[in-house]
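Predict the holo structure. Ligand: adenosine-5'-triphosphate.
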Amino acid sequence: MQSGKIVVENLYKVFGDKPQDAMRLLKAGESKETVFAKTGQVVGVNNVSFSVDEGEIFVLMGLSGSGKSSLIRLINRLMDPTDGRILLDGQDITRLSQPELVALRRRDMSMVFQSFALMPHRSVLENAAFGLEIAGVGRKERETRAMKVLEQVGLAPFARKSPHELSGGMQQRVGLVRALAVNPSLMLMDEAFSALDPLKRAEMQDILLDLQRGQSRTIFFVSHDLEEALRIGTRIAIMEGGRLVQVGTPQEIIENPADDYVREFFKSVDTSRYLQAKDLIDPSAAGLVVNGYPANHAELDKHSWVACVSKDHKLLGLLGRDELRSEGCVPSERCVPVSPVAPASCLPDVLQRLLGQSEPLPVADGEGRYLGVITATSVLSKLSAHRLQSAH
Amino acid sequence: MSDFLHRLISNPHDFLPIGEWVNQFIHFLLDHNGGAFDAFGRAVDLFAESIEVALLSLPPWLIMGFFIGLGVWRLGWRFAGFVLAAFALIFGTGFWPQTVSTLALTLSATLISLMIGIPTGIWCARNKRVNTLVRPVLDFMQTMPAFVYLIPAAMFFGLGRVPGILATVVFAVPPAVRLTSLGIRQVNKEQVEAGHAFGCTSTQLLFKVQLPIALPAIMAGVNQTIMMALSMVIIASMVGAGGLGNDVLSSIQRLDVGLGFESGLAVVLLAIILDRLTESFGRGQAARQG
Ligand SMILES: Nc1ncnc2c1ncn2[C@@H]1O[C@H](COP(=O)(O)OP(=O)(O)OP(=O)(O)O)[C@@H](O)[C@H]1O
Ligand SMILES: [Mg+2]
């Protein structure tokens, strides 16, 4: 069995009165459109399998109607699946009885809504403490706990106000606090920031990332905004017409979009901003000298620079091609020490370094092992490749 | 069957004797369940009488003070001034005791209507089948001319307060049911989902999410129920329910325009006071839910 915080296996959700007819067609490989034309049943989720690791922010993306809300509601069983399994910490939640489900929702999961869904008759503090109140926590304790979380997001001075006296961004902070106050191991967020203007949205993303730092909480985040997904997502999943098209880290998806639908998403986004140093390495830009001896004599002539590394591949420095004597051994003292960048450095940092030096920019991992060099040419060719892909 | 054919032939314009069937049904009920009706009637009478006796035993200034206080709290000094003037007028024209009786009748009919109407409304909101069953009944209750209820009510319970109150209840229940059910069904889908997502049981969902959010609509239903009850208890004086209706009725019988005007004015003033006050409770809630 797969492991993970959430494991979804062959999940289906059909809306309508004859789901079994639709299931037969779906299992025979028919599409959502065909099923609707033949049976009138609406397919929300079609044979979806994936797993979410503990502690990650898993972002689910897709166009309107692709089944994101249905999928997130299947995970806390606001909807019952037509077929398939959902394992939460290894327990199949599709088989839970109503009381078990209520207990699970109180203990392990909470949700943040697009329209905030605050209770207008309750104060900010009472809203924040709602989950704890439902779970039967006494007034004193629940208000202390809710207050602590309100303080974390800077809402403590508004605790006694009514939600409608707050701006949209602040209301959603209350929604976030309500979900966090119960200290869930899984937080579900359905387009939680979509109703906010871009500035407020970015602010909320920062708050979320801040609150998530050092936590093992898992977040399942639905969004239709790719910028948002790339910004906060540990991994991104993309849905189309009820199916899962691709799952991967932001880099993986940018580098290898599974199909045109996924590529379409990136059209409006300047994906080059998400390029990292490791994506920009040009493997043929520099020769390699290991422990004083060229790794490949024939190759050396092609490069104007050579990277010198120790026996265990630690970077020692760079050396101009002219300095290299063809007869062999290179004394390490002669290398120019150039401090390397980390593989995850972002494009602006890389550009800044490149502009400030005449040598290429070496990349080394956390232990100082040499991975390759970045040159102005390699950056330019990567960027133009991205433009072409977006224009595709 | 031959009876029916005979009727069809002899009287082709009225061959469906629905009225007769209803009469027979009522008599059947009376003959076989008289005891049950009596007991029920006595219970209602006891309830209504205690309210009326209690209100009548209070000194007038206390009742007036209560309404004036409410007026200041909910609507400000201007309305409180109006309440004071209205009560002074009623008191001065000598209709105070009848007005208190009418108030008591309205109060008991409203309470009974709400005790029936709000739970029914909740049930309708939560169960589609109940809703489809109840709706036509409500339409029937509301559109049937109000006088028509008085006759069977009087047959079951004799003359007096009880048939008046029960006919009033039939008339005043529908808005309570409708607006309660509407209010609950209008609760935003995501708010209900939020309730579920945080682990509400269905009772918690009702009391912590649906009813509080539906409160403005329910208060509007209460307001309408009170207004309908007030208008009906006046009519119910025809079966001897008492109160201001008696004066209105005798003014008609005696063609006494002056008496009709004075008693009618008392009804209007009472209606305005009750309407504004109950409406203000719903509005306060609605503003918060903006
Ligand atoms: N309760 C329902 N009854 C019938 N069909 C439904 C229901 N809920 C969703 N659907 C259908 O299921 C499909 C997926 O809907 P869903 O709301 O999950 O999409 P979504 O990706 O969240 O879209 P959006 O971005 O607009 O929120 C749509 O075709 C929708 O019409
Ligand atoms: Mg959605």
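The pocket of magnesium ion (ligand 2) is lined by residues A 68-69, 191 (CB under 6 Å). The interface with chain A takes residues 188, 190-191, 193-201, 204, 208-209, 212-213, 215, 285, 288-290 of chain B (CB under 8 Å).
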